[in-house]
Amino acid sequence: MGPRRWPVIVAIISVLLAGALVAAWNISLPYYAFSPGPVGDAIEAVTISEQETFVPDEELLMLTVASQTVNPIEAVLAAFDPSVDLVSRAAIRQPDESDEDFVTRNQASMDVSKETAITLALRTLGFEVTTRSDGVAIVEVLPGTPAFAVLEVNDIITAVEGSPVELPGAIGPILADNAPGEVVTIELQRDGVARSVEVVLAAREDDPSSPIIGISAEALNPTFEFPFPIDIDAGLIGGPSAGMMYTLAVIEVLTTGELASGRVVAGTGTIDEDGNVGPIGGIRQKVVAAEAAGAEVMLVPAANYDEALTAPRNGMELIPVATLDEALAALEALPG
């Protein structure tokens, strides 16, 4: 091969490589890159009027995750960043869900989370909160449970054993005197038609003596009547993962003293009306964001704790919590 051909060959290879890079850059993979997102003080998001409040000398940081679709080049780069994870699109988006519907769904989830946080915080402090809804909508029926053959997603439960239910948390107390294997009667609406069905109770996986129906559910069109004006400004953030921190923030603002002894504490986790702290997505990214924001301690949902330990961090302490009571006890135990 003559020396004059090398420039031509190099030029051809360069053009091919450039074309391949351009093509790869314009290919969208079915994955999202999760990276550490903005951090905010949950206390500053709480607004209360017509009631005495107290300004604490501490911060309760709520955490977010930044997500974006990726092309093959970005996916390769993400693999070399320990603070970034690739997450399947199917794990966070519903089939054929538009961007607008995705945002709307997450905003609705945040709205319910805020009202649940306020309700739980006020009730923890002894205030009365009236809640109403159009029933309890089933969002998942657990495979392997007797309910799987009887109940359906989008069924709206209106009563269990003759007792009306408006919130998912009302079901547990109704079943308290039952045992796994027993049959209960559930009144529901399916496609606008009232039905009465019998369901054999299953056993809780972590407590075989406790009965469950075997569903995941949420209140349908819930409304909350608070004893005084109170609001949480979440901005453009969606999803339910700040629920625990918003609950703590409301309690902090309405009580004297400081829950965390003046420390900078971060945390994440969903919350339900019974005070249970649930797992969230992007825990590794939130650990990174919390430490970068100066948090000395981070409250982590117990279900996410093992994964949180794999996140790159220096000296920030991680504390697993499964309930609001555990979170409050963890804060109280912090040295001043």
How is this structure best described in words?
With 336 residues, this protein is an alpha+beta fold. It has two domains: 35-129 and 228-332, Ribosomal Protein S5, domain 2 (2-Layer Sandwich); 130-219, Roll (Pdz3 Domain), CATH 2.30.42. Helix content is 29%, strand content 29%. It is built from nine helices and 20 strands. It has helices spanning 5-25, 72-79, 89-92, 99-124, 171-174, 243-254, 283-292, 305-308, 324-332, and strands at residues 31-41, 46-48, 59-69, 85-88, 130-132, 136-141, 156-160, 163-164, 183-190, 193-200, 202-204, 207-212, 215-219, 223-225, 230-232, 264-267, 270-271, 277-278, 297-301, 317-321. The strands form six sheets. A six-stranded mixed sheet has the order 4-1-3-16-19-20. Strands 6, 7, 8, 9, 10 and 13 form a six-stranded antiparallel sheet that branches. Helix 4 packs parallel to helix 6. The longest helix is centred in the N-terminal third of the chain and has 26 residues, at 99-124. It is globular. The termini are far apart. The mean pLDDT is 87.
How do the helices and strands line up, and which of them pair or pack?
Layout: H1 5-25, E1 31-41, E2 46-48, E3 59-69, H2 72-79, E4 85-88, H3 89-92, H4 99-124, E5 130-132, E6 136-141, E7 156-160, E8 163-164, H5 171-174, E9 183-190, E10 193-200, E11 202-204, E12 207-212, E13 215-219, E14 223-225, E15 230-232, H6 243-254, E16 264-267, E17 270-271, E18 277-278, H7 283-292, E19 297-301, H8 305-308, E20 317-321, H9 324-332
Parallel strand pairs: 3-16, 16-19, 19-20
Antiparallel strand pairs: 1-3, 1-4, 2-15, 5-14, 6-7, 6-13, 7-8, 7-9, 9-10, 11-12, 17-18
